[in-house]
Please model this.
Amino acid sequence: MRVVLSSLGLIFGLSGVIIGIVIILHPKPFISPYFGPLLLSASSVMFGYAIWSLYIWSKNQQEDLKNRILSDSSQLIAHWHYNANRWRQFSELALKKGRKATFLGLWIFGAILLLITVLVMYFNSQFRWSALQYAFIGFIIFMALGYLLATQHQNRKRRIFLESIKPEVHLSTYGALINREWTLPFKQSNVDLIQVDKVHLHQETCLCFTVKISSGEGDALKKHHIPVPQNEMEHLPKVLEAFQESISITQQK
Model:
């Protein structure tokens, strides 16, 4: 429920900001001169609160998952430690790929949003080219905020992955805990682990965890890759077997 309300707050907040700017730049005699600034201020507060609320929700989710992984030893399948240099080399390549995908997705979504706005205005019989500036205002606001949030997210992830002196990963049926800070959920209200495979990535043997993420728009698949330490290779078949058993139990429920 919190996620739904926060998402609505993002939508209405951003819409209010754009409308407030439009009213301030082009005041109308039948609109109070105080309405534009008040709408802009209130919408900015709503937008900021919605972002903060989603951030707190995400942080609480990660903290809850972290506590479950560390406290419930009965669900812990493996606890791996890594050579710092090998871990850093693998993480550098993986983070670089993830960063490119994040910002590419942001630009594609922003471009689609701008294109739809321009097309709607173009085919509107009451279209005025001066209104195009408002579309660009909205586009710039969206891209600036999106870039800021994505950059902060990527910087935090990079710090957790690369600055640890003794890299370690806890693998549980609940999820993976990387360096006791970063969590990858395998079992949550909208997340289910559906497949685990042994693969090779960036010259390392890895476990590939495929999770299904359910939402109102359908299901999406996401893959997480965890490298296997050299001294844990002999135990890998048992780890795979334990996860396959966990998946079978979940699917039977």
